[in-house]
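Entry for the shared binder. Reason: the reviewer on the internal report wants the predicted structure included alongside the sequence.
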Amino acid sequence: MKFLYIGIFFRFIFCVSDASFAAESSIIPFQLSPSSKPMLHLGGLQDENGINPVSGIQIQPTNNLLLGGVLSPRNYENDLSLYYHVLIGYVPSWKLLKFSTNMIQVGMHRYRFGDNGGVRWFSFSVTEAAQIGSFNLNVCWNRLFTQQWERNTVLVSTKIKVFRDLYLQPGAIAFFTPKFDYSSFLLMSINL
């Protein structure tokens, strides 16, 4: 049994991944919600290969804890694969800015069943959510990393209330290395 734990630990630590693919496909759609209801996210992420469907769910069991995951099937040159990630977030009682709320998130991302096999990477994120009048702005700095590489991305989005428990979340993920580029996305979020 000890060997099983050691094997899992080393696979977890010494994972292999492509840095540019990770930066282009990592999306963290989670948002702070005034209610503790579960939230379902459905939408698409536009990248150089087209629009990829994205689905996610977040659960907020307490006022300062967030759990969630994202699932996104990918089809690149008739190669069907799957991107997913799991995330845990913490909402601290301190604030960086007086008019905003912040959240710290840690996640594990995985890309499976593609031609290049399974790849895995991790993320550390800090999100600032500010409401200025009726305008909501979310800015999320992401540090994506493995043992071999690390990348920074910035996610910017807004939340538009359509109905009582239905929101649209347009936004973009900007990545900076090796060159500046971005991927846009549109999500529909529903409080369940």
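Summary line for the report: Residues 2-13 form the longest helix (12 residues).
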